[in-house]
Specification:
With 166 residues, the protein is mainly alpha-helical. 36% of the residues lie in helices and 7% in strands.
């Protein structure tokens, strides 16, 4: 394989349970290191781990460069970075991303409403301000979705479409 005998530099910082320990003397721990160790064993390479000095995952700076681990990838300071990187267009121009393998689901937990004869028990856990904000957010999301749909319908999807539009 292409990585046989190579030594890679890996960027990482603590992110439980995915990256639990970055202490080389104790051994690297966490789900991502378990996966990296399996890949390293199969492809016969070694690695060392460094953390970004600014302790950031990666934020785009005004000059187009990135901070954090995305910046380390962009500047070729690391070969691989492990972490919870949200994929965006600007980040995709700075670094290559793997396939997404984890999604977070968030929820709101409230006490169970008391049994009532009418259906108002469903609405009572949240204040009128929250319900108003929710309705506004849904309406704005629908409008933005329609606008995005209209705009993207006019963008050529392939070079063939671009040639046909001329």
């Amino acid at each position: 394989m292409a990585l046989t005998g190579h030594h890679l530099t890996v960027g990482a910082q603590t992110w439980n349970p995915w990256i639990k320990s970055l202490d080389a003397s104790l051994g690297y721990e966490g789900v991502l290191f378990d996966a990296l160790n399996n890949i390293a064993e199969k492809l016969n390479f070694t690695y060392s781990v460094i953390s970004p000095a600014d302790r950031q995952w990666g934020t785009e700076l005004p000059n187009g460069s990135f901070s954090g681990m995305i910046g380390m990838c962009q500047r070729k300071e690391v070969d691989v970075a492990l972490g919870p990187f949200a994929l965006s267009w600007s980040r995709a121009k700075a670094a290559d991303f793997s396939t997404v393998f984890h999604f977070d689901d968030y929820g709101i937990m409230t006490p169970r409403p008391k049994r009532e004869a009418d259906l108002s028990g469903v609405a009572k856990p949240l204040s009128w301000q929250v319900w108003t904000s929710l309705v506004i957010a849904v309406c704005v999301s629908m409008v933005v979705g329609v606008i995005i749909n209209i705009v993207t319908d006019h963008i050529p999807k392939t070079s063939h479409d671009l040639a046909e539009s001329k």
